[in-house]
Structure formats: structure tokens, C-alpha cells
Design goal:
heterotrimer; A mainly alpha; B alpha/beta; C mainly alpha; A: mainly alpha; B: alpha/beta; five-stranded parallel beta sheet; 8 strands; 26% strand; globular
């Protein structure tokens, strides 16, 4: 997984950057709505084509593992989901900086919209991890350091979603959520470290490694295609969620105006 | 129908708020309770409604003491849930009070808020919330209206509307008790003045 | 009258789900409790599987008590409670209707989440079914007992931890019989049915006692 992630980084790094630039260009929500409406179909098309190719490669072209057999195919969904769970949180952390430091009008919309998408991919990572674990460990769950860290990340996502839901006024919720997201970003390495420490204290290092650094090219390529396709899917969903959030806030404003006019 | 109170007294926290108060209101009459802040207008309404037990005396409606079942109470709280729509709020109280009145949309129309029926109650202004609370009196029929400062937060137009609704209720044989320190939008049949000195 | 009580149940459930995410937070809290326990006692799945039913029960207990303080507080703060008094509905049934609504929105999701969380603790299928069943039978008792606490604290504007502190001792019997019924399917020594029947009895008793006590507390809070 480490090798896969390392290879994946430059590509998605480029994507994030252009995405971040787009955020700067689209300073006002109206412009964001019209521009994102134009490029969203292409994003969806790219994501769906990528998924089709990736799933075909993963299920029909890639070989079965000599140890794990067919179950290794879960990896093609599990590893990209796990990667996206962290990618999503990083995006939220950047957006939170945007809220607190640059006071960008779309930053909190982005942070709020990415949270459920990120949580969904994190859940997918946990679900596929546990399905993969069943044949490997004989049970659906083992308190393995890596899985446990992802579970804690999932909890942090849920906490943020709860915070967004708890405060009615988006402006006030935004700052609180941004602070919590950044505290979380600082804390994640500490949590990861302590979970690793806790885990080695109780049992020898993790039962098996996902893929391992010497992954065969016949498996690496399908994995990379899947990672790219799922990243595109993640972005498409996030962009759509942001559009919905903007529209939701407009409805709220319109409702207030309606109440004001009738007053 | 006749609402009467005899020898009413109320004690809160060891302090006598008022004592030995009597009144009688018949169908079609409105009794105004007046007096400075702290003179016990709200307490009097709550005692009449049965929300507070009187320290002495009794309130009866046609000789029976089930005033609570026959009364609408409009307190200073609007009893609206911000997360529910205006219509959902009204519909809830219509189902709780069980005696049929106007359909909720018609009641909203009477207070001039029919357009806002589907908005969450939380975004309404104080005056609009007050008007929804007034509409609550219309969605289920109860002969006795106990109104605590009913004109609070209302503009002059809404005050006239409230006046029309009260007049209509009285004409239909209703009874109104209104605590207020401002002139009511309808002429009171009688006034009970609560003062500290009393 | 049934219609009015159903309206109260429905509105309580709806507000719990729609407003500020009370039900959602409860399930997340339940998950958080279950996740945190292994960090305290270690990741040994054999141990976790053995004490799993107890962990789930304690998690469900805390998650249930978490949102209870607002059960009557909101109605008092916005004047709804006054109107319930005037409605002529028996206050006991109003309390029961509100408790049922609250359980539907906060207790039932915990019961549904329990089997998933049980997998994290490596609980075997049979005990997992048993613990879910005991939670289904027992969490209504927790909500009902909690409703007494919520109605007691409504008079003095502070719920929160106070409700939990007041209520926790009264929930001990429910916890005892819930956990022992569920654990019976793992370790024994008692069979499943006797403690489970006692658990059902506790729920039924609290369905009678809680509305009476709750209504009395609400009445006294008016004065």
C-alpha cells in the first residue's frame, strides 16, 4: 500500500493543486455554480469511464494472489478508499485554513460538503477491510493498528458532521468546525503513533501487510487506475455536494426574505 | 356560559401576589386585567387556567371547575418548535386540543401568514411567531381565551387583526380574559385592576 | 385521544431526528464508547468477545442517558408544557408518549447499531443476536427511567449530567439482567431465559412507574 500510495501521490497532487486554484478563481458562489456546472459532466464522465476500466482490470485482468486467492481483489476498492479517507481529511484541513485564515467564502462550504463524502469513503475502507479480514483472520474485525486508526478517523468525520448539524447558523458552525478539523489534523499523527504503540504492546506487528512494497506490476496498474477513478469520483461527489450546500443556503436566505416580506 | 372567580389568592415563594380577588365574565364579554409589572396579571391568568393552584378561592365555569379543558392560553411563550414548519406546528396543536376549529391554513390566512405555512418556524420574526401563536387559538375551538399581553411584538396592523379576531370570538359567545398594560385593540367589557396596594 | 398521543410521539421522534441531530449523536457516541474500551483493556479479541455484551450494554446505557435531559426541558422553555397541561390529556400518557417517541428516535437506532458494533468486538453470531434482543427489550426501560430524571430536573433549568447522576443507580437492575441474559449465551452459568424474562418485567414495570412518577414531577414543577 505504501508503494501504491507513493506512486499515486504525484498524480493526485496535481489534481489537488488545480482544484485549489479553481477554488481561488471561483471566489463567489454564483461563479462556482456556473463553472462547476459546466465541468461537472466531464468529471463524472471521467470518473465513470475510469471506474469501468478499473473494475474491469481489477476483476478480470489482474491475477489472483498466490496466497490470498480471489479475495485479493477487495484490495482494488479497499486501498483507494483508505487513501481517499486521508485525502478527504486533508482537503477539509486545507478548506479549514481557508475559512480561518483567508476567510474564503467557499471554504466552509467545501469543508462541510466533503465531510460526508469523506466519511462514506472511510466507511467503505472499513467495510472492505473487514470483509477482507474475514477470510484472512477468521473474524470481521481485528484491532490491527492500521484498521483502528482508520476507525478513529471515521469517528472524527462523524464528530465533525454532528457539529455541523448541531449549529443552525452556517457561519458560526463553520469556524467551530474549522478549528476542530485543524485540531484533528494536528492530532492525527499523535493518535496514529499512540495506536501503533498500543498495538505493538499487546501483539506482534500487524498480521499481514496489504500488498507490501513489492507489489507486482500486474496488480499495480489496476490499483493505480482504480485509485485515480475513485479520486475522480470523490471529487465529483464533493463538487456536487458543494453545489447542493450553496443551493441549500440560498433556499434558507430566500425563506428569510419571504418571512421578511410577509412581516 | 359564565366564568367566575371568588376570593382568589396566589402565593409564590412565600409572597402574597394578590388576595381576595373576585370577578365574573359572561359569554361575549372581555375582562381586562391591568396593573403595573409584578402586580400578578400573569399569575392571575395561570391560576384561572389551572396551571397554578390558587392559595385560596376557586375558579368555576358554569359552576364546574374544569376551566382548563375549556380554555386556550396565550402566554408570553409561543410554543413553536423552530425545526418544524409553521403548518406542522399548528397541525400538532390542533391534534392535541382535539376540538375542531378552522383548518390550519385558513387560520394562518386569518393572521396573514398563509404564505409562510411551509417555512420553518425558527426563521420567523418575533411578531410573526406571535401571530402563529394567535392562529393556534383558531385551529381548535375553546370558549375561554386567556391572553397574556397578546399585543406584544405585534405591529399596528396585526393589532387590528387581533382585535377583529377577539371581537369575532366574543360575538360567537366566547369569553376573553386579557392581561395587558397597553390599551387592548377591542374595548373591554370590564377591567380588573391589580395593584400592589390591593 | 390516541391521535393526540400519536402526534406527541411522532413530534418527539421527528424533533429528535431533525433538530440538531440528537439521534445521530447518540449512535456516534455509542460507537465512540465501544471503540475506546479496547484501548483501555487491550485488543485481545477473546477477552473482548467475552465481555462484549457488557461493553455494548454500558455504551447503550450512556448513549441513552446522553440526550434525555432535553426531553421535557425544550417543551418547558418554549411553553409547550403549559399547553400540554391545558390540553386535558392525562399527563401520564403525555409522558409515556414522549418517552416512546424519544426511544424510537434514540433507542431504536442503538439497537440497530449494536450488531455492527458487536462485530468490532468479535462477538459470535449467537451471543450477538442475544445481546441485540436484550437491548431491544431493555433500552425502553432505560429511556423510561431516564424520563423520570428528565421530568425531575425540568424545574431547575439544568439537565445534562445531573439527569445521568440521578438516573444511573436506577438503571442498575436493567443492566444486570440485560448483560447476564446476553452473557448466558457465551459463558453461562445461568440460562438465557430467566434473566431475559426479568428484563422484560423491568421494562413493563417502568412503563407503568415512569409515566406516573414523571407526571407527578412535572406537576410539581409547575408550582
Amino acid at each position: 500500500m505504501t508503494a501504491a500510495a507513493a506512486l499515486q501521490l504525484p498524480k493526485t497532487g496535481r489534481l489537488t493543486k488545480s482544484n485549489a486554484m479553481a477554488f481561488v478563481d471561483l471566489a463567489n458562489p454564483t461563479r462556482y455554480l456556473s463553472l462547476s456546472g459546466r465541468f461537472l459532466p466531464f468529471l463524472w464522465a471521467a470518473a465513470l469511464v475510469g471506474l469501468a476500466i478499473g473494475l474491469y482490470l481489477a476483476f478480470f485482468v489482474a491475477p489472483a494472489d498466490y496466497q490470498q486467492g480471489e479475495t485479493v481483489r477487495i484490495m482494488y476498492i479497499h486501498v483507494p478508499s483508505a487513501w481517499l479517507s486521508m485525502f478527504g481529511y486533508s482537503l477539509m484541513a486545507i478548506a479549514s485554513l481557508g475559512t480561518l485564515v483567508w476567510r474564503h467564502p467557499l471554504a466552509d462550504v467545501a469543508a462541510k460538503s466533503i465531510a460526508p463524502v469523506g466519511a462514506a469513503f472511510t466507511f467503505l475502507a472499513l467495510l472492505t477491510g473487514s470483509l477482507w479480514g474475514k477470510p484472512m483472520w477468521g473474524t470481521y474485525w481485528v484491532w490491527d493498528a492500521r484498521l483502528t486508526s482508520v476507525l478513529i478517523l471515521f469517528l472524527m468525520y462523524l464528530g465533525l458532521i454532528a457539529l455541523w448539524r448541531a449549529v443552525d447558523d452556517p457561519g458560526r458552525a463553520a469556524r467551530a468546525a474549522a478549528i476542530l478539523t485543524l485540531v484533528g489534523a494536528v492530532n492525527l499523527p499523535i493518535i496514529k503513533f499512540s495506536v501503533d504503540w498500543w498495538n505493538t504492546l499487546h501483539q506482534p506487528a500487524s498480521v499481514f501487510r496489504l500488498g507490501g512494497p513489492t507489489i507486482d506490476p500486474s496488480m499495480l496498474w489496476p490499483l493505480l487506475v482504480m485509485a485515480l477513478a475513485m479520486t475522480l469520483l470523490f471529487l465529483a461527489l464533493s463538487v456536487m455536494a458543494m453545489r447542493n450546500e450553496i443551493l441549500r443556503r440560498r433556499i434558507r436566505t430566500l425563506q428569510r426574505m419571504a418571512a421578511g416580506l410577509a412581516g | 356560559m359564565r366564568l367566575s372567580a371568588s376570593g382568589l389568592a396566589a402565593v409564590r415563594g412565600g409572597r402574597t401576589i394578590f388576595a381576595d380577588r373576585s370577578f365574573a365574565v359572561a359569554s361575549g364579554e372581555i375582562l381586562a386585567l391591568t396593573g403595573p409589572n409584578g402586580s400578578g396579571k400573569t399569575t392571575m391568568l395561570r391560576v384561572v387556567a389551572g396551571l397554578l393552584p390558587p392559595a385560596a378561592g376557586a375558579v368555576t365555569l358554569d359552576g364546574k371547575d374544569d376551566v382548563a379543558q375549556a380554555a386556550h392560553f396565550l402566554g408570553y411563550l409561543d410554543a413553536l418548535k423552530p425545526a418544524l414548519t409553521v403548518l406542522e406546528n399548528l397541525d400538532f396543536w390542533r391534534r392535541i386540543f382535539r376540538s375542531p376549529g378552522l383548518p390550519p391554513l385558513d387560520a394562518l390566512d386569518r393572521v396573514g401568514l398563509a404564505d409562510l405555512a411551509d417555512l420553518p418556524a425558527g426563521i420567523l420574526s418575533a411578531g410573526q411567531k406571535r401571530r402563529v401563536a394567535i392562529a393556534r387559538l383558531l385551529v381548535s375551538h375553546r370558549p375561554v381565551w386567556l391572553l397574556d399581553e397578546p399585543t406584544t411584538a405585534l405591529d399596528s396592523e396585526a393589532e387590528r387583526m387581533l382585535g377583529a379576531l377577539i371581537a369575532e370570538h366574543l360575538k360567537a359567545g366566547g369569553i376573553v380574559l386579557a392581561a395587558t398594560h397597553r390599551p387592548l385593540p377591542v374595548a373591554a367589557s370590564a377591567t380588573l385592576s391589580l395593584g400592589r396596594a390591593a | 385521544m390516541i391521535g393526540a398521543l400519536a402526534a406527541i410521539t411522532g413530534r418527539t421522534a421527528l424533533l429528535s431526528l431533525r433538530g440538531s441531530g440528537g439521534a445521530f449523536v447518540g449512535v456516534v457516541f455509542f460507537l465512540a464508547v465501544v471503540v475506546v474500551v479496547p484501548f483501555g483493556i487491550g485488543p485481545d479479541l477473546n477477552l473482548l468477545a467475552r465481555i462484549g455484551p457488557a461493553i455494548l450494554w454500558i455504551g447503550a446505557l450512556f448513549a441513552t442517558l446522553l440526550g434525555l435531559d432535553r426531553l421535557f426541558q425544550d417543551d418547558r422553555d418554549d411553553g409547550s408544557l403549559d399547553l400540554f397541561f391545558l390540553s386535558g390529556l392525562p399527563l401520564e400518557l403525555v409522558v409515556l408518549a414522549k418517552a416512546v417517541g424519544h426511544w424510537l428516535a434514540t433507542g431504536l437506532p442503538l439497537v440497530i447499531a449494536a450488531p455492527v458494533l458487536g462485530l468490532l468486538l468479535g462477538i459470535a453470531p449467537l451471543p450477538l443476536g442475544a445481546v441485540t434482543l436484550t437491548l431491544l427489550a431493555g433500552t425502553p426501560a432505560l429511556t423510561l427511567i431516564g424520563a423520570i430524571g428528565a421530568s425531575l430536573t425540568v424545574a431547575f433549568n439544568r439537565g445534562g449530567l445531573l439527569v445521568a447522576v440521578l438516573v444511573l443507580p436506577f438503571t442498575i437492575p436493567v443492566l444486570v439482567f440485560g448483560v447476564s441474559a446476553a452473557s448466558a449465551t457465551i459463558v453461562g452459568p445461568v440460562p438465557f431465559l430467566p434473566p431475559f424474562l426479568i428484563l422484560l418485567a423491568l421494562t413493563l414495570v417502568s412503563a407503568v412507574v415512569a409515566p406516573i412518577a414523571g407526571a407527578a414531577a412535572l406537576r410539581s414543577s409547575m408550582e
